[in-house]
Amino acid sequence: MGLQNIIRWGVDLTLVAMLLAAVRRETGLVFAYERYDFTQLIRRYLTWGEYCFQRFVNHAQGDSRRFRKQLDGVDKFLESP
After folding, report:
1. What is one GO cellular-component annotation here (predicted)?
2. pLDDT single digits (tens) 35-57
């Protein structure tokens, strides 16, 4: 396994952790990690996702020109085509 593969796995795992953080914040549902043997490791992984998600949200809300507030009647993301 090369360095490129390790970096790719790290990025993929971070994105999954961020997705779980977004689900927790949006719905209140959390991953039931206490069912597994590696609870401390899973808890640290989920904490990493929360940290990365918060950093991303802060960046998007702050100085970024790539994000803006959704415009009602213009963006129509939730409407059916």
Report:
1. cytoplasm
2. 889 999 999 999 999 999 999 99
Residue 54 domain-assigned (yes or no): yes
Whether 56 and 50 have beta carbons less than 8 Å apart is answered as: no
Cα(35)–Cα(16) distance, integer angstroms: 19
| 78: Cα separation from own chain's centroid | 20
Identity (one letter) of the amino acid at 66? R
Q: Which domain holds residue 23?
A: 3-61
* Domains in the chain, number: 1
